[in-house]
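Quick one:
INPUT:
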């Protein structure tokens, strides 16, 4: 879907937070997670290396949320509330990026998404794939 090296423009819903990101593996890492937080937020995330995400506007408008172990850092626009990205607990050298924030992309662009086992986090022991989420256009 994309050249892995091409920078992509992204923003929250209101546009107060804007960022540019290079995806580590294109859109091939698109996935959902079934941990309590991700299940409620419902976002599709893709992978970027920490150094490959640059906030170009509105960094002061980002709000940080941490829970449980406090390792993962989840960022949101404090104006519109949209989750933009998070620093991963499973690999703190990576960000998970909200696909819906990427210009021209939608979570509904994916016919199937892997759902990872976030209830049994990889940092806590064996985990894996919980299932496949499918989207079929009517």
């Amino acid at each position: 879907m994309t050249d892995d090296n091409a920078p992509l423009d992204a923003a929250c819903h209101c546009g107060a937070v804007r960022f540019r990101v290079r995806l580590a593996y294109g859109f091939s890492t698109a996935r959902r997670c079934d941990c309590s937080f991700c299940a409620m937020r419902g976002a599709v995330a893709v992978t970027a290396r920490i150094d490959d995400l640059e906030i170009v506007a509105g960094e002061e408008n980002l709000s940080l949320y941490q829970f449980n172990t406090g390792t993962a850092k989840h960022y949101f626009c404090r104006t519109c509330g949209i989750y933009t990205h998070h620093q991963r607990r499973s690999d703190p050298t990576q960000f998970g990026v909200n696909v819906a924030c990427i210009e021209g992309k939608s979570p509904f662009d994916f016919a199937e998404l892997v759902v990872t086992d976030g209830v049994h986090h990889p940092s806590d022991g064996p985990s894996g794939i919980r299932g496949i989420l499918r989207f079929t256009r009517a």
